[in-house]
Amino acid sequence: MGRGPSIEGRKNAEDARRGKLFTKLIREITVAARGGADPAANPRLRIAIDKALTNNMTKDTVERAVRRGSGAEGGDEMTEIRYEGYGPGGIALIIDCMTDNPQRTVADVRHALSKHGGNLGTSGSVAFQFQRVGELVFATPDAAAEEKLLEAALEAGADDVRNGDGESSVLCAPASFEAVKKALIDAGLTPANAGIVWRPDNRVAVAGEQAEVLLDLVDWLEDLDDVQEVFHNAALPTA
Asked: Distance (Å, rounded) from C-alpha 38 to C-alpha 67?
């Protein structure tokens, strides 16, 4: 009878995932801090710090990243790059990266896409299909929960609420994100996920092997150290 992964093996895998996540969070804080080291006056930095602390990063690590980004501990060499491309079946992809070696990054991204039946596009080739918005996702298991969230979201100044599959997304302008988030938390509502995202105007249904290949592509891209976030316009099966 075969045995599953050992406890040590699972722990090592979890440690590796955690290490990659922390690398990405530190890069985001460092780059955000270029706009000022005071999170009260720098919304992007405040969002990055909140996300890091939510993922149990220590305050010392956060503060070191802020100092490095603001130049207090020497400059950093990170460059922000956004790639646009297509996955299997022509699914649109936006791939946000931070890198100290753009040539390496574009080669890695291009390789990932070509291995999964996709290709790299030119700047602007798919971005018009997305909107940059603040998005807060909440569990809403029933109509009462949806109604409560809708009332609180509109009171908080959100632009829209989209419901489906037991969860709801509260949408707002990026500039309003922090205020809407605070108002909803103050109302006793805790988001499962919250951030500034690229949200597609329309989603394209994918299923079967195409969905599996797309998911594998997204996993591959997200596993690259230089890739911060991946967005796509696919509607994936829920089960």
From this structure: 10
